[in-house]
Specification:
Elements lengths: L1 H4 L11 H9 L5 H5 L5 E4 L3 E2 L9 E8 L4 E4 L5 E8 L6 E6 L3 H5 L6 E9 L4 E4 L2 E4 L6 E4 L8 H13 L11 H6 L5 H9 L4 H27 L15 H7 L6 H14 L6 E6 L5 H14 L3 E5 L3 H14 L7 E4 L5 H13 L4 E4 L13 E7 L6 H8 L6 E6 L5 H7 L4 E5 L10 E5 L4 H13 L3 E5 L10 H15 L5 E4 L5 H12 L5 E4 L12 E6 L7 H8 L10 E5 L5 H12 L3 H19 L17 H17 L9 H16 L1
Parallel strand pairs: 2-3, 6-8, 11-16, 11-17, 12-14, 12-15, 13-14, 15-16, 18-23, 19-21, 19-22, 20-21, 22-23
Antiparallel strand pairs: 1-10, 3-5, 3-7, 4-5, 5-6, 7-8, 7-9
The structure holds adenosine-5'-diphosphate (ADP) and magnesium ion.
The site of adenosine-5'-diphosphate has 19 residues, from helix 11.
Amino acid sequence: MPSLYELPITNLKGVGETRARLYQKLGVDSVGALLRFYPRSYVDMSHVFPIAHAPLETPCALRVRLLSPPVETRVKGGMLLTKVTVSDDSAFPLTLTFFNNPYIKRSMKMDTEYLLYGKITANFLKREMTAPEWMQAETAPAIRPVYRQTKGLTSRMIQENARQALSLLPDPMRDPLPSAIREQYQLCHLRYALENIHLPQDMLGAELARKRLIFEELLVLQLALLRMKSRSRKASGIIFEKDTLEEFCARLPFTPTSAQIRAMKECTADLRSGFPMNRLIQGDVGSGKTAVAAALCYAAAKNGFQAALMAPTEILAQQHFSTLSQFLEGTGISLTLLTGSLSAKEKREALSGLENGSISLAVGTHALLSQGVHFTNLGLVITDEQHRFGVAQREALAGKGKSPHLLVMSATPIPRTLALMIYGDLDLSVLDELPPGRTPVKTYAISSDKRQRAFGFLRKHVRQGLQCYIICPMIEESANDMASVSQYAESLQKNWLPDCRIGQLHGKMSSQEKEVIMKQFAQGEIDILVSTTVVEVGMDVPNAAVMMIENAERYGLSQLHQLRGRVGRGKAASTCILVSDAQNEEAQARMRIMCSTSDGFRIADEDLRLRGPGDFFGSRQHGLPELKIAGLLSDTSTLRETQEVARNLLREDFSLEQPEHRGLRGEVSLLLKNLGKN
Ligand code: ADP
Ligand code: MG
């Protein structure tokens, strides 16, 4: 199917520039990508209920005729209300209500049979359905796919486009899965799978299609990961003979927790083993990962090697740089910051220092990956908050040395078994203990009518010399988060807290501007920082004691947990205020969980349970590509099977060059290419 990935989506009938842009939002840019854009679920209209026996409050399909023509009324506020009375053979009347839909009166006809899909509600007097989906029974497919949609692009449009895309499949069509594997695992052909995932004749067809596509997706993922990791099996000449752990810990301004010591020891053993370290450190927010990273950087320098620490944002890189400068002060170890915003002169100095070896440690952003950055003897690579980085970027940094040791730090707690599967042969250290003296952050959920009281609460804290964050609502559509932040901050200053020093931080600011604000906040010159989620990652200001999050329902649990982790880092008791008016059950469940626990692993579990693994892993939590169909939790047995198959395949044919493996090779390179874009 490779050539269909090169066929722009505009080749489909009815897809012009406008619709193509909407498709872009869904990540679909080619006909091939559309075929790989699978439905999320199906509406099964093959079971039609008689109205009299249809379940209440549960979506179901009905087959009806109109008892009288649609009646329109205007209600207060100008809203158009259309009521239609229908019935079926069970002779039970049902009233349909539609809002602001002039189309109904024009198009719903007497003497035509319609299929409806919706929830029936009932009281003593009558049964009703509000805004059901409807279509002419004659032409309706028995099973309708439901796609992820975006405003202006409905599931039905996508279905029509997919139907046409299917007709463009080459005939005969090659299947990337070798037939031997298909036979062994009883998987259908790709053509059947694509046809039945988009336009199933019955649910069994959809199920067979799913099974095969999940298998293929996970197999390709495993192949890609194994090929990237294969470098780690090679022995390394990089051995840190000298154990510098005690020496380093003596320099720390605090006593390391036993979890930190354990992690440091596990890493140190790796560094001396003769094989490159490949380790993941998982630690909840505030568990002190930076000190572990610093210990390893110290070890590298004292053993005559260079180290690079890469962070996902400029703010975080700067913060790490200053923390490490503090820890390493007086050791003679020279370090440099390397970010996009250095002046030309600073940059020149940094680059030459790294190239001639006079600088041992580089702390930076992805600027570290640029072509001009060379190391004399890079022995250690650390990436922080790695879910922000693509796996490929991590590898690119490692590529600047000869099989250097690799440490990945992640604050996204993932259940251990899952982590081991995703990260394959990365070893795992867990920081399951917080430094002493922390009081858990008290969390409250409030509705927006209590906002004024919340501002009073903030003021009280500011009067005590403490600081606060307010996370502003994101405005969907636009990449421009500035409007919301500055409007919010201005109104706050003018109307609510004129006596507080209020600062702003948002993605549209240059990194210098951000740095200035961050510094002011860190030095206590700003009382309340109104910000977007740019503060989410790693910011460490111990004097901040209140985190107020607007539109809290818009964030996933893990992200809320990250945001909350910005407070509770100092001595003062801290509070997190979640502001939300969301009524839906799921949002409220999330608020309840946040209020009831501060355990990151529990929150991760709940997040998985509520959102489903597809979403959880879809949102780039770990630098893996978005899975289109498989769930890492729900499909664990397939995950294991494909791990096995992938290992065997690569053992037999590492570069996948044999003719029957070429299709797979194509899919693997496509995945790696997309990973690079991450
Ligand atoms: P994270 O794991 O979220 O990256 P940090 O490394 O930023 O956490 O550490 C959070 C805060 O805790 C920092 O202010 C750090 O100096 C402090 N800290 C780390 N380890 C200890 C410890 N063992 N005792 C006391 N404070 C510590
Ligand atoms: Mg951190």
